[in-house]
């Protein structure tokens, strides 16, 4: 597919910019920046505000201030009993001295050099002996030629960075890349539209966010608003284009009003459908009866009972004389679906077939033969079935169980569309309604909100590490009662070895010192597959009482007898991830407990010390949300409210989430404006009404967002 010049330029690797060495590029890649475009949209998450650089003699006690000086002395000490490691740094200038104190961050000592200029930013506690005391201030390391007057009133960007890439270096590298890349990112909105809606030029906005210079908050706000509209715009273009594709779809299925088969099925179930399940089913039924393809997203937390809804829908297709297929993200989950569906369908005489990776040629042939038979069936497999779905005859309904990686299979479905069946996509990731409607505006959305009755909510506690001995006692008690426990550690990761307690190390300590009387097991990402599976099997069968693990247990593990989950360094996990992890317990009929260990350094935990991040929220408040509720949608709403939508789907690591600045809950006006603009531009494009430069820029923007997903006509 031919591309615009700008697209080709902006998708070049960052090494194309002078001064970006392969080593730097590797560090940038860790921040999620590979191309020039990645860098352009890698926005700072806050600014260092130099509006008031003060001398120590100018600050008042209790004031939050930016204090400037030269490093006079650096001390690293341990308190009595060696429980606390303290770093003290004294700085000085003509207005007196200031002392910064940090607890339990001994590595900081090496970062200071006597005689170098620095800024401390934080609350000034006391002023005894003419010296300002600051606890855990943020530090800005300055160039030798720094002079406060040059910086007065300036804002400096602060980016999410990674070890080995100091903020100052990243800032310089970013500035180099941005100034080289920016001339190729051009305005795609016609001037008239921008004027009407008060939107500044897109490249001015990008420039302002990376380097606001002495810009005031109002001006910076305008830049941000322009980019919020841009983020929404890119998404809406996708939704509008997808809808257009859908309108042209060739749909042949004729589903019938549910009859005896469905009644029989519901009667053989060992439970009654909940109100939520019934109302979702009625939405699905209406879609299936309508003379156009269904594109419905079914959201429901893990355990909310989506499978039986999918089964009923598939049986509706079978009863109407069609075949139906359900696809799971992994082989294990596919097998689980197969077993459940087979158990249910055997009773009503409907065939369930299983397509899996381990099939021999003979089995494959048998499966293909079955495709030829008259009788209708339900086919179970993984997402790989999507590629052969055209060979499944008479396909009336496809159910895609997406679990976490939502979106991938769904788009594959669209691209291959010739004659399409009804499609039901199920996701277990609760997404706030406003966000779901923005991201998946081309889909209809159903939600199962409450779990089947009888499930007991997990009791959740947030504790500091000192309380761990009590937690271990509790695990021992539960184990004595025949229950099991998970102890979860953050993923083993080269880049932050320092802080993460590696699961492997803790396994040693726990099995030798803490639980010598219990059987422990360990699974993490670096073990061989067989070893992992063997340990999981022994845990499932109750041979192992305590499983030490990393987040590898997130997907597809079901051990109803596990009643305790301890999550260490819980402050390092996102809320969505904590929720998924906690979903592993509370699956049986007994009370379960989740303990979140908050290892935030004491002095940093409180709200008063935290930075007012653009999309920020302190760890403790996030963990409190977990303690308060088990409702995935409530947690998702809180997460979005407090951190912005960028945190969803763990996209933060990738540097440029779908929505980083924009928040559909907050920015409703910008959202509807973006939708209007997307529709207008696509229409003008189709009619050939766009000026050549605007057309070029618009195509560039669409390509940057969607790659080759959409081929624009005439391009
Ligand atoms: P998920 O939404 O995660 O796919 P499942 O469909 O696996 O959830 O359902 C979780 C469990 O709840 C299953 O054992 C299922 O049989 C059971 N279940 C589903 N619906 C109901 C209901 N209405 N009443 C009682 N149990 C139900
Ligand atoms: Mg499921």
pLDDT < 50 stretches: 494-500, 602-618, 649-656
Indicate the proportion of strand residues: 15-25%
SS summary, helix count = 24
Number of strands: 24
CATH architecture annotation name of the largest domain: 3-Layer(aba) Sandwich
Overall pLDDT, averaged?
Answer: 85
Distance between the termini: 8 Å
Describe the sheet with the most strands. 7 strands, mixed
> What would you report as the Rg, rounded to the nearest angstrom?
29 Å
Q: Could you give me the name of the CATH homologous superfamily of the largest domain?
A: P-loop containing nucleotide triphosphate hydrolases
| Overall shape | globular
CATH topology value of the largest domain: Rossmann fold
Helix/strand/pairing category = alpha/beta
Bound molecules: adenosine-5'-diphosphate, magnesium ion
Query: How many structural units, i.e. domains?
Result: 4
State the helical fraction.
Answer: 25-40%
CATH class of the largest domain: Alpha Beta
Account of the 3D structure:
The protein has 715 residues and is of the alpha/beta class. The chain has four domains: 176 residues, no CATH class; 101 residues, OB fold (Dihydrolipoamide Acetyltransferase, E2P), CATH 2.40.50; 189 residues, 3-Layer(aba) Sandwich (Rossmann fold); 171 residues, P-loop containing nucleotide triphosphate hydrolases (Rossmann fold). Helices cover 38% and strands 19% of the residues. A hairpin with a 6-residue loop joins strand 3 and strand 4. Helix 8 crosses helix 24, helix 9 runs antiparallel to helix 11 and helix 10 runs parallel beside helix 11. It is globular, with a radius of gyration of 29 Å. The structure holds adenosine-5'-diphosphate (ADP) and magnesium ion.
């Amino acid at each position: 597919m031919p591309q615009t010049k700008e697209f080709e330029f902006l998708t070049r690797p960052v090494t194309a910019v002078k001064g970006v060495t392969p080593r730097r590029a590797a560090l940038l890649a860790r921040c999620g920046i590979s191309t020039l475009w990645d860098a352009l949209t890698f926005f700072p998450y806050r600014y260092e505000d130099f509006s008031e650089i003060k001398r120590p003699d100018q600050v008042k006690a209790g004031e939050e201030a930016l204090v400037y000086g030269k490093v006079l002395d650096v001390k690293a000490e341990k308190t009595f009993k060696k429980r606390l490691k303290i770093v003290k740094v004294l700085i000085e200038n003509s207005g007196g001295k200031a002392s910064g104190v940090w607890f339990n961050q001994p590595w900081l000592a090496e970062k200071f050099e006597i005689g170098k200029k620095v800024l401390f930013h934080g609350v000034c506690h006391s002023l005894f002996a003419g010296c300002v005391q600051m606890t855990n201030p943020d530090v800005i390391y300055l160039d030798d030629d720094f002079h406060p007057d040059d910086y007065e009133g300036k804002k400096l960007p602060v980016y999410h960075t990674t070890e080995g890439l100091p903020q100052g270096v990243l800032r310089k590298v970013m500035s180099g890349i941005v100034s080289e890349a920016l001339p190729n990112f051009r305005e795609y909105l016609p001037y008239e539209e921008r004027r009407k809606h008060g939107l500044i030029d897109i490249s001015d906005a990008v420039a302002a966010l990376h380097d606001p210079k002495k810009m005031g908050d109002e001006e910076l706000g305008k830049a941000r608003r322009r980019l919020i509209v841009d983020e929404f715009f890119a998404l809406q273009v996708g939704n509008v284009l997808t809808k257009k594709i859908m309108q042209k779809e060739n749909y042949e299925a004729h589903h019938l009003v549910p009859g005896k088969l469905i009644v029989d099925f519901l009667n053989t179930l060992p439970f009654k459908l909940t109100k939520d399940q019934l109302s979702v089913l009625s939405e699905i039924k209406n879609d299936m009866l309508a003379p156009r393809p269904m594109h419905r997203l079914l959201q429901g937390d893990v355990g909310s009972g989506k499978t039986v809804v999918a089964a009923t829908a598939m049986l509706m297709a079978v009863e109407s004389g069609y075949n139906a297929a359900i696809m799971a993200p992994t082989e294990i989950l596919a097998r689980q679906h197969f077993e459940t569906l087979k158990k249910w369908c055997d009773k009503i005489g409907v065939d369930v077939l299983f397509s899996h990776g381990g099939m021999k040629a003979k089995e494959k042939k048998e499966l293909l033969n079955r495709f030829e038979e008259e009788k209708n069936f339900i086919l179970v497999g993984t997402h790989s079935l999507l590629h052969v779905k055209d060979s499944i005859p008479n396909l009336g309904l496809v159910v895609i169980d997406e679990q976490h990686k939502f979106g991938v299979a769904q788009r594959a479905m669209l691209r291959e569309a010739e004659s399409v069946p009804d499609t039901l996509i199920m996701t277990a990731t609760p997404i706030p309604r406003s966000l779901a409607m923005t991201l998946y505006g081309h889909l209809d959305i159903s939600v199962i909100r409450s779990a089947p009755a009888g499930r007991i909510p997990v009791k959740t506690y947030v504790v500091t590490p000192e309380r761990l001995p009590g937690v271990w006692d509790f695990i021992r008690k539960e184990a004595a009662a025949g229950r099991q426990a998970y102890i979860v550690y953050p993923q083993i990761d080269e880049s932050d070895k320092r802080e993460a307690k590696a699961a492997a190390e803790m396994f040693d300590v726990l099995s030798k010192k803490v639980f010598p009387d219990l059987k422990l097991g360990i699974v993490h990402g670096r073990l061989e597959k067989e070893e992992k599976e063997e340990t999981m099997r022994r845990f499932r069968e109750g041979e192992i009482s305590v499983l030490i693990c990393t987040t590898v247990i997130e997907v597809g593990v079901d051990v109803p007898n596990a009643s305790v989950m301890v999550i260490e360094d819980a402050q390092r996990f996102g809320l969505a991830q904590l929720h998924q992890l906690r979903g592993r317990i509370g699956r049986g009929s007994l009370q379960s407990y989740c303990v979140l260990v908050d290892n935030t350094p004491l002095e940093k935990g409180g709200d008063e010390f935290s930075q007012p991040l653009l999309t920020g929220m302190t760890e403790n408040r996030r963990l409190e949300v977990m303690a308060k509720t088990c409702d995935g949608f409530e947690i998702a709403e809180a997460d979005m409210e407090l951190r912005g939508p960028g945190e969803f789907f763990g996209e933060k690591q990738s540097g440029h989430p779908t929505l980083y600045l924009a928040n559909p809950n907050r920015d409703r006006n910008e959202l509807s404006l973006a939708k209007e603009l997307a529709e207008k531009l696509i229409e003008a494009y189709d009619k050939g009404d766009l000026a050549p430069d605007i057309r070029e820029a618009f195509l560039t923007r669409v390509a940057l967002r969607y790659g080759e997903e959409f081929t624009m006509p005439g391009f």
